[in-house]
Amino acid sequence: MTLLQLQYFQTLAHTLHYTKTAEELHISQPSLSYAISGLESELGVKLFEKRNKKTELTLFGQQFLPYVENALSSLEDGKVVLEKLNKNASQIVHMGYFQSISSSLIPAIMERFYENPENREIRFDFVEEPGFDIFTKIRKGELDLGFCLHTADWAESVLIHRQPLYLAVPADHPLAGRMSVSLTDFADESIIMLDQSSILRQQLDRNYAEINKVPNIVFEVRECNAALQYVNLKFGVSVLPTVHLAENDKVVFIPISDEDREYVRSIYLTRAKGKMLSVAAQKVWDHIATNFALPKTRE
């Protein structure tokens, strides 16, 4: 039996009139009669009978009707659930960010975004990974948008934040008491660096080259938090943004002051050019770009 046969049966069972039922269903009367006849053949019983030129349900039809109505009602309930799931799915924004902005910039943006009652139905599927990985996922279409340190021709980027960088040293390090340091003050120190895909690493490599120094790298890591852990264990120093550490009293962050070099890194809201965003993702993009964008400056 087919869904259409059951729907035709239910309608005819309520109207008890073939012509009216055909008109209501927008089908021909022969098509209706054929469908009902086929259903009766499959069931092996008559569902309707003629009495005094009137169509009536047989005893079999009366017994069958509640089951058909329950089945069709359940299918309709299932349809409503799927429609709701589909609507909710379109309200989910897939967004990525990296660890050092997870407890500062991201909460501030979310708080501001949800101040607008119209945005409260939108939900986020967050991904926290190194900045270059977020950048790659956006290009592959795995994320709608994200916060990145890289820029490229394929990406649309809006400058959102200028993140200061500091020299992180163990609390008992000779430089720990300084109000500020310059690159020459720590150029010979053992240093923990981010890997070469990092914008910060590329910036530091240029800075060391400008003063004709080769950094004494003891570890290369992918995340700022990992570098901070090694500083905490006194393996060396590192140039980092401020990063939360449970035992941060063992690490001191010292401002870096160089006349010729600015120790900050630019954070961009990024999406893939030409990619159509969902309505929800576009709302998020517009909100952040409108309320948090900074004028672009030269690196």
Automatic annotation (TrEMBL):
It comes from the Bacteria. Pfam families: HTH_1 (PF00126), LysR_substrate (PF03466). InterPro entries: LysR_HTH_N, LysR_subst-bd, WH-like_DNA-bd_sf, WH_DNA-bd_sf. One of its GO terms (cellular component) is protein-DNA complex. GO terms for molecular function: DNA binding; DNA-binding transcription factor activity. PANTHER family: HTH-TYPE TRANSCRIPTIONAL REGULATOR CYNR, TRANSCRIPTIONAL DUAL REGULATOR HCAR-RELATED. This is DNA-binding transcriptional regulator, LysR family.
